[in-house]
Design goal:
The chain is α+β, with helices and mostly antiparallel strands and 164 residues long. The chain has helices spanning 7-12, 14-19, 81-94, 104-107, and strands spanning 34-47, 54-62, 71-77, 115-123, 130-138. It contains four helices and five strands, in the order H-H-E-E-E-H-H-E-E.
Length: 164
């Protein structure tokens, strides 16, 4: 954490800040139920605000299709044996096998960028709607072919992503 005092820098921007209009807010509906290919963008440990329970938070970014670049969020609670079963399944699905849970923090960065096939399931409607995210499988990206028949990278080489 920096101990730098930003007061002078901020004071120089006071006039610009006062004269500008707030950016237009975009409202997004929740991503609909379905299957998506998404990359792990952020993966970190945190605590639930209300209960203080330990969580592993997943932030995934849809890679293809009409919802490309939209975010999908998933949390694993780390508390009960049943929670641990789901956590272990999710981590192994992403390609991480741990000998001990205490190894997790040091291994999280290695999962950034991993592509996963995920299912978003929505049960109920309105205020009663509950969204679940399931990690189905890891999607290994294929390396571009080097054969002459494959063409060049500028001719639309697939990164191993299927179209939904």
């Amino acid at each position: 954490m920096s101990h730098y005092d930003f007061a002078d820098d901020l004071a120089k921007l006071d006039e610009t800040y006062a004269e500008c209009e707030p950016a237009e807010k975009k409202e997004f509906e929740d991503i609909p139920a379905g299957r998506y290919q998404a990359c792990i963008d952020r993966l970190y440990l945190d605590r639930a605000k209300s209960s203080g329970r330990l969580l592993l938070k997943w932030e995934l970014v849809v890679a293809v299709g009409p919802y490309k670049e939209r975010r999908i969020f998933r949390n694993n609670t780390l508390e009960t044996p049943d929670n641990m079963r789901w956590l272990k399944t999710d981590l192994q699905t992403a390609g991480l096998v741990l000998g001990a849970l205490s190894e997790l923090p040091a291994q999280l960065e290695g999962l950034i960028g991993v592509m996963l096939d995920v299912t978003v399931s929505v049960k109920g409607s309105g205020d009663q709607a509950r969204t679940n995210v399931y990690l189905n499988k890891r999607v290994d990206r294929e390396a571009p072919s080097t054969s002459p028949a494959a063409g060049t990278a500028t001719q639309g080489v697939s990164r191993g992503l299927s179209r939904f």
